[in-house]
Amino acid sequence: MHQYVERLSGTVINEELFGDRIVRFLYSRTREKAPFLFRLATSARMSSLLGLYHFDLALGPRLNGNSRFLARCGVDLAECLAPRTHFTTPRRIFERQIRYWQCRPMPQLEAAVVSPADARVALGALASDSPLFLKDKFFDYEELLGAKHPLWLELFRHGDYAVFRLTPDKYHYNHTPVSGLVVEHYTLDGVYHSCNPGAVVEVITPYSKNKRVVTIIDTDVEGGTGIGYVAMIEVVAMMIGDIVQCYSDTGYDHPLRVRPGMFLHKGQPKSLYRPGSSTDILIFEKDRISFAGDLLDKGKRTDVHSRFSLGFGRPLVEVEVQARSLIAMAKK
After folding, report:
1. What's the average model confidence in pLDDT over 38-46?
2. Please, how many CA atoms are within 13 Å of residue 37, restricted to the half-sphere of its CB?
3. Quick one: pLDDT at residue 24?
4. Is the pLDDT confidence value at 266 over 80?
5. Residue 79: what pLDDT?
6. Which one of 95, 207, 230, 268 has the fewest beta carbons within 10 angstroms of its own beta carbon?
């Protein structure tokens, strides 16, 4: 069992983890007894084939006429830009575009940091004197940002971070969490581990072993959020084929590849995960932000059955948040 907390109501939700039985088999028995098969299962080719099987087979009448399927996925077609008849495959559902300017309201505060995605978030810190300190659990810090980038490794070494886990049913566009200037943008190669909480607990620092895209944003510029540098890391997972960089200033219009020198406006679409589960990680400079109090309180609850709490030996509960909702504020 794995549970999380719904942010607005505080309700504890039992999560039906996608492919949980297969993931548990892969990450307990296969990894130890058949390492070759495990490496194959987490390879880019196998991830692509699994994604094709699960997300590209046409559903036809079963989808067009079956509201139960959409309800199970938690999909509200009233949010979507495309008509219902467009959604003939799971891929089209999971790559849907929504009226985020209406259904994902954003706080109009210059100093606000917002969620990059519809996701379940867990908060942590890299500084050992922080109550949120978690060492080498979700990721190996130097491995995550890449050993060839010493400037960023030194800059964020004692900062805070937030891990956003997108499940396969989620809206899969990432939005910019802050406003600022892109100073570096690079890809780090890796494998395709599952983002299932059970797999994260079983495999040491999986997020820093997966293929990922790193964007460094300077927010201490004119029009910026004013919290220093922010690292946004987009991490692929099992059945994720690609991360498409497609930043738009207005709606989803005229998408652009993210590149150094580009100014990103907070809350705008930045990238799209090809379907499956996936993860965003935000890392902030030390003493530049304060996480929202309700997220901190809910993340420490002891009445929630979280696999992270069991695996990491301390209360660590995910909270479900919406894209563009408040997660932190600049420290005064």
Report:
1. 49
2. 10
3. 55
4. yes
5. 94
6. 95
Q: What is the mean pLDDT of residues 91-106?
A: 92
Q: What is the separation, in whole angstroms, between the first and last Cα of the chain?
A: 40
| Of 273, 112, 159, 138, nearest in space to 207 by CA | 138
Edge-first strand listing for the sheet containing 269-273 = 173-175, 269-273, 243-245
Give how far Cα 297 sits from Cα of 23, 149, 204, 266, 287, Å.
30, 34, 27, 26, 19
Its domain, for residue 31, covers 1-332
Element (H, E) at 51: helix 44-55
Nearest to 165 by CA among 142, 184, 139: 139
Which residue intervals of 99-256 are DSSP H helices? 100-103, 141-145, 150-155, 197-202
Give the count of domains, the chain: 1
Q: Which range, of 82-86, 172-176, 266-270, averages the lowest pLDDT?
A: 82-86
Rg of the Cα atoms in the chain: 19
∠ CA 285-291-294 to the nearest 5 degrees?
A: 170
pLDDT digits (tens, 9 = 90+) for 173-229: 999 999 999 999 999 998 777 777 777 776 667 788 888 999 999 999 999 999 999
pLDDT, position 123 = 98
- List residues bridging with 44 in a β-sheet: none
Structure token digits, residue 182: 């892109």
Q: Which amino acid is at 224?
A: G
